[in-house]
């Protein structure tokens, strides 16, 4: 499990508290939504790769497809892809 620590100035935190009932839960939800979107793209890419490739089997679960995607020998994460092609407009920003 990974942990992310966020730091806010006192005034920034007051701003969050003014607009959100639970800023911590909201922040977790933002991350969860983004992960869900990325996972959906991973699943679609991996299904397409497996369907058009030489393989004759496909994982039966979403988790299996995600694990298959990450186990590719030439897999690079977004930061690694950005390092190799810093001007690629398809890569996500910060």
Keywords:
94 residues, mainly alpha, 4 helices, 0% strand, elongated
pLDDT under 50 segments (min length 5)? none
Shape: elongated
Which structural class do the helices and strands define? mainly alpha
Strand segment tally: 0
Rounded to an integer in angstroms, the radius of gyration calculated over CA atoms is 18 Å
Largest sheet: none
Mean pLDDT: 92
| Topology as a string of helices (H) and strands (E) | HHHH
- How much of the polypeptide forms β-strand, as a percent range? under 5%
End-to-end Cα distance: 22 Å
State the helix count: 4
What does this molecule look like?
- The protein is mainly alpha-helical.
- It has one domain (10-84).
- Helices cover 60% and strands 0% of the residues.
- The protein has four helices and no strands.
- The protein has helices at 10-19, 23-52, 62-70, 78-84.
- The radius of gyration is 18 Å and the shape is elongated.
- The mean pLDDT is 92.
Helix and strand topology:
Layout: H1 10-19, H2 23-52, H3 62-70, H4 78-84
Describe the structure concisely for a colleague:
By secondary structure, the protein is mainly alpha-helical. It has helices at residues 10-19, 23-52, 62-70, 78-84. The longest helix is centred in the middle third of the chain and has 30 residues, at 23-52.
């Amino acid at each position: 499990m990974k942990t992310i620590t966020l730091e806010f100035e006192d005034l920034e935190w007051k701003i969050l508290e003014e607009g959100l009932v639970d800023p911590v839960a909201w922040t977790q939800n933002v991350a969860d939504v983004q992960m869900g979107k990325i996972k959906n793209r991973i699943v679609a890419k991996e299904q397409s790769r497996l369907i058009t490739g030489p393989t004759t089997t496909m994982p039966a679960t979403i988790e299996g497809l995600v694990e298959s995607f990450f186990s590719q020998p030439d897999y690079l994460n977004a930061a690694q892809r950005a390092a190799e092609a810093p001007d690629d407009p398809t890569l996500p920003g910060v």
